[in-house]
Write a structure and sequence with these properties.
By secondary structure, the chain is mainly alpha-helical. It folds into two domains: 6-89, Orthogonal Bundle (Rna Polymerase Sigma Factor, Chain: A), CATH 1.10.1740; 98-182, Orthogonal Bundle (Arc Repressor Mutant, subunit A). Helix content is 75%, strand content 0%. The chain contains nine helices and no strands. Helix 1 (6-14) packs across helix 2, helix 3 packs across helix 4 (70-89) and helix 7 (134-145) crosses helix 9 (161-182). The longest helix has 23 residues, at 18-40. The protein is elongated, with a radius of gyration of 19 Å.
Length: 186
C-alpha cells in the first residue's frame, strides 16, 4: 500500500478501508506530531493533540478536495487544532524569532544530537526566509530580527503603515506555508 498515492489511499478510506487510514497515519504522524510538539513543548500533550487531529481528519475525509495536496490539508487541520487548543488553554504563542529557540528546548540541550538539530533547524529557517520575495522578506526581517516597529519600518522603506502591516501578515503566511511544505519532520 506504500506505493499508492495519497489520493488513492483517501478513496480507499472513504470506502471504509481501515488499513488505508492506518497508512495515512503512518505517512503523516511524524509531521503532525513534530509541528504540534514545536508549538506545545510537551510530548504527552503533543501525542494527545496529534490523536485528536487524526480523528478530525478521519471525520472530515469526505470534505477533502483532491485539487489540494493532502499534506497542506492535514497541516491546515493541525494548525487550526493547535489554535483552538491555545485559545482554550490561553498558552503563549511561539514567535517567529524564537522558533529556533523552541526547537532547542525540545531536545536535550547539550547533546551532540541536540546541537546538530538546532543548527540544521536554524539553517532551514534562514533558507526559507531567504527564499521569500524581497517585498515580504525585508519587512519580516526588520520586524522579527531587528525588532523595529511597524511605524519604523514604514518610515525606513517609505511605504504606508497599512502596506507594511499587510506585507508582514502575508510574509508570515508564506513563511508558514513554506516551512510546512519544505520540511521533513525533525
Amino acid at each position: 500500500m506504500t506505493k499508492l498515492t495519497d489520493i488513492e489511499i483517501i478513496e480507499m478510506c472513504k470506502n471504509g478501508n481501515d488499513a488505508a487510514f492506518t497508512e495515512l497515519i503512518n505517512r503523516y504522524k511524524n509531521l503532525v506530531y513534530s509541528v504540534i510538539l514545536r508549538m506545545t513543548n510537551d510530548g504527552e500533550e503533543a501525542n494527545d493533540l496529534a490523536q485528536e487531529v487524526f480523528i478530525k481528519v478521519y471525520k472530515n475525509l469526505n470534505s477533502y478536495s483532491a485539487e489540494f495536496k493532502f499534506s497542506t490539508w492535514i497541516m491546515s487541520i493541525t494548525s487550526n487544532h493547535i489554535i483552538d487548543f491555545r485559545r482554550k488553554r490561553k498558552l503563549e504563542t511561539v514567535s517567529l524569532e524564537n522558533m529556533g529557540h523552541e526547537i532547542a528546548n525540545i531536545a536535550d540541550k547539550d547533546t551532540p544530537e541536540a546541537i546538530l538539530l538546532r543548527k540544521e533547524e536554524a539553517k532551514r529557517i534562514h533558507k526559507i526566509i531567504e527564499n521569500l520575495p524581497a517585498i515580504y522578506k525585508v519587512p519580516i526581517v526588520m520586524y522579527h530580527i531587528k525588532d523595529m516597529s511597524y511605524q519604523e519600518i514604514a518610515n525606513k522603506i517609505g511605504e504606508p503603515l497599512s502596506k507594511v502591516k499587510n506585507r508582514i501578515f502575508r510574509g508570515r503566511k508564506m513563511l508558514k506555508t513554506m516551512y510546512v511544505d519544505d520540511g521533513s519532520p525533525l
